[in-house]
Amino acid sequence: MPFILNAELSVTKHPFYLSVTEINVDSKTKKIQVSCKVFTDDLQQGLHHWLQKAVNLEKKSPSNDSLLARYAKQYLQVFVSKNEIDFTYLGYEIEEEAVWFYLEGSAKNIGNEMKVIHQLLCHAIPTQSNLIHCTFNKTRQSHKLNCPEKEIVFRF
Question: How is the chain split into domains, by residue range?
Answer without folding.
Answer: 17-155
